[in-house]
Amino acid sequence: MSxxxxxxxxxxxxxxxxxxxxxPTVLYIDLQLVHEVTSPQAFTGLRxxxxxxxxxxxxxxxxxxSIPTVDIAKAGSISLDMIDDMARKQLNQxxxxxxxxxxxxxxxxxxxxxxxxxxxxxxxxTQPGTTIVCGDSHxxxxxxxxxxxxxxxxxxxxxxxxxxxxxQYKPKTFKVDYVGALKEGVTAKDMILKLIAVNGFQGGTGHxxxxxxxAVRSLGMEGRxxxxxxxxxxxxxxxxxxxxxxxFAYVKGREYAPKGAAWDEAVAYWRTLKTDEGAQFDKEITxxxxxxxxxxxxxxxxxxxIHITEAVPDPSVIRNVNERSSLEKALNYMDIEPxxxxxxxxxxxxxxxxxxxSRITDLREAAAMIDGRKxxxxxxxxxxxxxxxVRKQAESEGxxxxxxxxxAEWRSAGCSMCIAMxxxxxxxxxxxxxxxxxxxxxxxxKGGRTFLASPLTAVASAVNGVVTDxxxxxx
Length: 475
Fold this sequence. Notes:
By secondary structure, the chain is α/β, with parallel strands linked by helices. It folds into 3 domains: 7-168, Aconitase, domain 3 (2-Layer Sandwich), CATH 3.30.499.10; 172-242 and 270-288, Aconitase, Domain 2 (3-Layer(aba) Sandwich); 295-473, Aconitase, domain 3 (2-Layer Sandwich), CATH 3.30.499.10. It contains 16 helices and 19 strands. The protein has helices spanning 7-14, 40-49, 72-75, 85-101, 116-123, 154-163, 188-199, 214-217, 221-229, 245-251, 261-270, 321-334, 360-370, 388-396, 399-406, 455-464; strands at residues 16-18, 25-28, 31-35, 59-62, 104-106, 131-134, 148-151, 165-168, 172-179, 207-212, 238-240, 283-288, 295-297, 305-307, 349-352, 380-383, 409-410, 431-434, 449-452. Strand 13 (295-297) and strand 14 form a beta hairpin. Helix 2 crosses helix 6. The protein starts with 6 loop residues before the first helix and ends in an 11-residue tail after the last helix.
């Protein structure tokens, strides 16, 4: 009888090309996704070495980080006047590089362009049992499909382009078991923020999270992507969820999904991709969601999170000198008083978007809460879909009209305020409730202060003009 293995180990073992003692494993990569920010040096390296992209059919590029989100749907060209001149150069260079090396690029002349971690699932490129890499830390998103997906650096991008393989040391395994059932107003975003708050933003270092439990199974694919997306914020190399019928239904019929007999064969294999009973993990943690409330961050890393009704921690009661100093610094930057909840704290900007929470179900939930209400006079609210496919779907359902009637800005697809580019950013001292994934100092604009939360909490805060528990607005 073979030894019980985890989902991660099954996929890792199936992709090992060579494994010499004491050396990193040579791992086969099924899919590489590319965007304009981290790929130029890799293409230059290939050009200087006289190399080609080995599998252009398994390499796909999109424009997301540097793209403006205002009126680009109507512009149809990347030569439009942008705020950031460097961004324009990056976008133009991506087209030049992809055309030269035969890589498919989703630019502004295509109808599918979007954030790389939204586009992959949209097109059916993201599939169970595969290895997926991208020069972006939030590649872990694709693990929601039962894939092993992680971010890589520039030199690694070049290696995968040239060889379709990558040198990697094998990570350890980490079981995250969510028990209980979510209450109304509590979402996948709250589940992952709770893990990071409890386990620490470096607690998963050197490991791959596997999310398990009935609370995870109850989530749709979009919620699972939200959780896997923020695995990196918990320090993990990747996050994974075993595929099931929801996964298969999501992938079926998409452009790059298997068809006909190949589909049946693929699903038969995908059904085997689950952790065996009795398999051992290097680490385990259990999160009880029965008592879980909407979460919100108060500091300058995603691990500084609390239930929205809880008080901000007081540094004076922390014995560890380093932890106390870190908290004091964070609260000083955020200009927040400890010992009190954030509820009622005035908000300047609300951002619904990013590769964490910009999918159609996120927009539906946000629209349902804001429908018939108005954004507070003191708040600027931006809603940025994750891809042009998501945007078109939302507009076909009238979600754009709901947001605009409420006083929110409806944008074209892109990373937008998540990374503070092309004018989509906070001014110094402004507070934002954001559905993105990082609240580092200056992440959403120099001197800006970010509270990470779910789309429901973001909308509730936009309507009231202050941090608000969304449960108070659910009928």
